[in-house]
């Protein structure tokens, strides 16, 4: 059992609030045909790296990498590094992208990425913004369907955004995990080498949280990058040892892949899934917390 750690500086409160009911699939995903018919009626966000965005993006999309939403003060492993920005600052960042809380938002990334589309949608849900969805299959699916692309960067028109009441059920802190460890199922969605001890992102230590179940997040999509059906997702999660009634905490290195997997768990009916946004970076950076190596479960 790990010893208690200082409470994370996570924003929002990371109290592990009561999860919301399961969302219908249509509340989370749109297809390329739908987007093609609604371009100009939505705020379109490309969550990929800027280098990829500049090589080609969906017309009208603004670019926002994962670091746009986070605090990078200090270095990886420091408490609070990579956490979401404070709520007031987040409102300004979201408003700068053209998000006003009324116009629908569509987010996309690409096959082979880190699930940045799910990360941004998870942020919006955490902030209480519900009118947002993911383009299923991302940029790959858009191009495969004959969608037009553009290389000129889009400068968004900043708007004022007043955030509604936050939904604290999406996010938990290091302290919350320590306090509830005895009844949690911990899901590690990083790659196999990372889980077993490889350090690719300046982690202070390699390995995983003791007792964690390993399920790489890219197993949640098919070969084209589109999300598996709800039934297929349930089969994958059941095979990993998860049940719908479980209290599940998902983590990766710094929250991005974990956010994507948390969304898909809830979509499949595992409504008590939460993301550990501080991720393994913060856990491994706390020398008082135990880390395991090897294949684990």
Automatic annotation (TrEMBL):
Q: Which of UniProt's keywords are assigned here?
A: Repeat
Q: What SMART domains is this protein classified in? A: RHOD
- In this chain, the stretch annotated as Disordered covers 1-25
Q: Per its UniProt entry, which superkingdom is the organism in?
A: Bacteria
Q: Name one Pfam family in it.
A: Rhodanese
Q: Record keywords: Repeat included?
A: yes
The question of whether Repeat is a record keyword is answered with yes
Domain Rhodanese, first and last residues per copy: 38-151, 180-292
Q: Where is the composition biased (Polar residues)?
A: 1-12
PANTHER family assigned: THIOSULFATE SULFURTRANSFERASE
Identification of the protein by name: Rhodanese domain protein
């Amino acid at each position: 059992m790990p010893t208690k750690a200082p409470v994370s500086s996570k924003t929002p409160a990371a109290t592990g609030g009561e999860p919301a009911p399961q969302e219908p699939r249509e509340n989370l995903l749109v297809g390329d045909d739908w987007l093609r018919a609604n371009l100009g009626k939505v705020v379109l966000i490309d969550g990929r790296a800027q280098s990829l965005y500049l090589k080609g993006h969906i017309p009208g999309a603004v670019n926002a990498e994962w670091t746009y939403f986070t605090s990078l003060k200090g270095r990886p492993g420091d408490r609070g590094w990579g956490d979401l920005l404070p709520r007031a600052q987040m409102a300004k960042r979201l408003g700068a992208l053209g998000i006003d809380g009324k116009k629908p938002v569509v987010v996309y990334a690409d096959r082979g990425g880190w699930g940045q589309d799910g990360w941004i949608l998870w942020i919006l849900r955490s902030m209480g913004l519900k009118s947002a969805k993911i383009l299923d299959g991302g940029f790959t699916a858009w191009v495969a369907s004959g969608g037009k692309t553009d290389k000129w960067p889009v400068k968004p028109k900043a708007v004022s955004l007043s955030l509604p009441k936050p939904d604290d059920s999406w996010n938990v802190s290091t302290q919350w995990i320590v306090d509830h460890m005895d009844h949690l199922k911990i899901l590690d969605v990083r790659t196999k080498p990372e889980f077993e001890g490889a350090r690719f992102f300046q982690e202070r230590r390699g390995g995983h949280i003791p007792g964690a179940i390993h399920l790489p997040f890219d197993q949640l999509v098919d070969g084209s990058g589109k999300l598996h059906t709800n039934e297929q997702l349930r089969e994958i999660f059941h095979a990993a040892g998860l049940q719908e009634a479980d209290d599940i905490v998902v983590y990766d290195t710094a929250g991005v892949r974990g956010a994507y997997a948390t969304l898909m768990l809830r979509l499949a009916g595992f409504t008590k899934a939460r993301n550990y946004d501080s991720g393994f970076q913060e856990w491994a950076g706390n020398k008082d917390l135990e880390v395991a190596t090897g294949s684990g479960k």
